[in-house]
């Protein structure tokens, strides 16, 4: 296709320039590789589907609860589960492949369809590849990067093709609507923009065909959702919380934190004139609309608890596209100073944008902390580190809980546990979960939020205390892992845990118990899981404690 901004692009040129940008991006993605705790929620649905239990968080759950927001991604993960593939390897690897495809698509379209030139195309692609949020969510285990790729592909089929591609846009719109719960809304925005920009002179027909295919898919999925889950709204949206001025302010703080942390997205304001030049407005206007729409969406969604601006990541490729067009204009300027400024600006954007990957910030912590939307005051990098570390801890706790329930006698045909971090704990324990945040517990998700309730971190507005579920008599009320203890040290830990149980007023119906994890080392130490487990009917707490003492000291 001949580029539509009047520049002299060629299909050839130095296409090999993509390779160093891709290698740099792959190294960055490897540095930030992780699986977040929420991904394990999708993995558990996928495993149950692969095992024949249906799309349920818990087998036998009736009616089932839609506690995920990424239908197509769950289906893909179910294929991995069915094949016996490592679930913590293959979905993140597929996500990383989507990131690579997105980088190549951006680079290729800038050079071959927009005529931006080799250097602007390379610099914009490298800036995106080395941008920490893009690197972080290249893995993560969620559908963030597949969603971003499909969104850019739909933009490509509607705006960058010689004529709107009805078949390609229709297929991409269908996938976009299924991969994330908000995908249909973004597809609709793109179709409306396409009709406004390219709907004249007979160009509306393929756009309308693609939009109709997407709309039919959305309607069919809504009908299936209602028939299966009894609701047209996923429980994850119901659990999100109220939409009011206070929470919209939290969404604003979310975007402000992102901008003050990474700074370079602010440069989009200076790229707007290049995007809106008359000869390229048909591409620049929709690209700019999408680049700026995602911060608006993040505010309306009232923010996100996860690190590195996850809600803003799908808009980043459009910002990179605008940046490349601005660089191209500088490179073609008749003024020597402008041509010199292009590589200087590119280098500054790449370096400044990448600095937070090492927790280096140009804006002081005090300024960023004013917009802190979480309770804690850590940076985005520190929160990512915490997220990665906690997912590993909760994975171990889930395995320990499952082992405890398999080895210790209990009367429950369906053992249950109360917690708010239901991802890795739920996936590895495979027990019934009472979710304090309501993602898989509708009665919590439907709880109204009173105006005078303290503002919570994003996604936690509906949280209830663990004692809310005492009426349901969960098998295990609390648990923890203790490390490298000898018998008497174990007994002291159990005693301290019992005092916590008593202070909470929970001794009967609950008792302290423990189970060993792993083997005893040469000094007689080992790891243990401690639990508050529901006591048998008529249990005597003192007799149970004496039995625990004897087991801890190996008298029994």
Task: Give the tally of β-strands.
Answer: 5
Kindly report the average pLDDT value.
93
Helix content: 55-70%
Strand order of the largest sheet: 3-5-4
What is the helix/strand order? Answer: HHHHHHHHHHHHHHHHHHEHEHEHEEH
Number of helices: 22
Global morphology = elongated
Summing up helix and strand content along with how strands pair, one would put the structural category as mainly alpha
β-strand percent reads 5-15%
Measured on Cα atoms, how large is the radius of gyration? Answer: 26 Å
Description:
By secondary structure, the chain is mainly alpha-helical. It has 22 helices and five strands. The protein has helices at residues 18-31, 39-50, 71-83, 90-113, 118-129, 132-136, 144-160, 166-179, 183-198, 204-229, 235-238, 245-262, 268-275, 281-300, 316-331, 336-354, 365-369, 380-407, 424-429, 442-445, 487-503, 541-552; strands at 416-419, 432-435, 476-485, 510-517, 526-534. The strands form two sheets. The chain has a three-stranded antiparallel sheet with strand order 3-5-4, with helices on both faces. The chain has a two-stranded parallel sheet with strand order 1-2. The longest helix has 28 residues, at 380-407. It is elongated. Mean pLDDT is 93; it is low at 1-12.
